Amino acid sequence: MWSQRQQQPQQQKPNFSTASSSLFSHTKSVQAKKYTMVELDDSKYHNLSSQAMDSLTEYFEDLGDQLEMDDYDIEYSSGVLTLRLGVHGTYVINKQPPNKQIWLSSPISGPERYDYDETNNAWFCRHKDESLGALLNQEISEALAIKAAVPIN
Question: What's the burial of 105, exposed, middle or buried (CB within 10 Å: 0-12/13-18/19+)?
Fold first, then answer.
């Protein structure tokens, strides 16, 4: 039995040294991120997030008055803004103090978290590199067939 093993031809092992240069020679173009997260102290977070929530609340209250939509409703309490758009679904936007974020639950795009970018004065999603204002403008405009102008970045 031992002699049979010795007589079997050895299998060739792959040579990765020559293959590696062709495997890794393609570079992927990386686009620079538009937004950069900054660390906020508690006081600054509360000021910025309260300003954003107050601006959104006022905007959506005024929009509701203009639309004359029966199933349109907005409520803001304890850092949670609920925007009901009838058949178009319900948005929930809330402050998230432990993470120093604003969270959004959208009936169109789902849940997302937003950090603050001081340079652009914007709440933005790190995963999508998109601002909260841009997303809300797009979705509200499409859902209600209007030109939304949400007053935050």
Answer: middle
Global confidence as pTM: 0.76
Residue 43 CA, chain-centre distance (Å), reads 23
Q: What DSSP line would sit under 65-106, residue for residue?
A: HHHT-TTEEEEEETTEEEEEEGGG-EEEEEEETTTTEEEEEE
pLDDT at 110 over 90: yes
**DSSP codes joined into one string, 3-36:** HHHHHSPPPPPP-HHHHHHHHS------PPPS--
DSSP string, 99-136: TTEEEEEETTTEEEEEEEETTTTEEEETTTTEEHHHHH
Token pair listed for 23 = 């495997």
Closest CA to 78 of 112, 50, 40: 50
